[in-house]
Amino acid sequence: MAKARAIRPNPAVAVPKTAMVMAAGLGKRMRPLTATRPKPLVEVAGKPLIDHVFDRLRAAGVERAVVNVHYLADVLEAHLAHRVKGIEVVVSDERAQLLETGGGLAHARDLLGDAPILCVNSDNLWIDGPVDAIVQLAQMWDADRMDALLLVVPLAQAHGHPGRGDFHLDAEGRIVRRRAPGRLAPFVYTGVQILNPAIIRDYPDGPFSTNLFWNRAIAAGRAYGVTHEGLWFDVGSPASIGMTEALLADG
């Protein structure tokens, strides 16, 4: 049997032009700050979380963002209309029902096109390492071998993250299994990924998790991870904001 090839950067691969920005969540862990504003508009280091994300998208060369909305949707749409510049924004409206991450992708499927898509959680905050993280992810993308390519960070470097890790990767970067109950896993998903939109199929009606698509890709040997070389912060609660800002202030 042929030996699996490690993923290697391909500078000729372009960053996806379209991104899906997941912004519809209720932000329960961030209460009371989310009582009057959606979580993506909570400020960290003087700027709403979603603005940090759009800064990264623009810097990487993304041209178009599909943003799903549900909780306090009017507030978020007004912010997108008046504050986001330099990138086309298309709203995927989930006011009628919160559809979770997988359901959000399915609901927006017709807006995403057929080329590989970048998918980013709107409450992410990361600092690039030697290479722009989105560019790094794009250069590692191999459509012949992948349906999902996740940006991951070592558990020990997941600042503010309360979990025990998400995935195990082999030497070639393939995601081989999830964390077992009661155990640790060495890598945490950062909320940034590239997906083959063809994987968004055969899904149930209503809300469901992206785990449905990931599980298929893992079972088929077509889910991979790339390790983030910079800083990443899980800004999930009010208490985590001060810790994140302190670490950012330290440089």
UniProtKB/TrEMBL annotation:
Gene3D superfamilies cross-referenced by the UniProt entry: Spore Coat Polysaccharide Biosynthesis Protein SpsA, Chain A
InterPro entries in alphabetical order: GlmU-like (IPR050065), NTP_transferase_dom (IPR005835), Nucleotide-diphossugar_trans (IPR029044)
Region forming the signal peptide: none
Keywords of the record: Nucleotidyltransferase, Transferase
Organism domain of life: Bacteria
Gene Ontology terms, MF aspect: nucleotidyltransferase activity
SUPFAM superfamilies membership: Nucleotide-diphospho-sugar transferases (SSF53448)
Domain Nucleotidyl transferase: from-to ranges: 19-241
A Pfam match: NTP_transferase
Protein name listed in UniProt: Mannose-1-phosphate guanylyltransferase
Organism field: Sphingomonas spermidinifaciens
Classification lineage: Bacteria, Pseudomonadati, Pseudomonadota, Alphaproteobacteria, Sphingomonadales
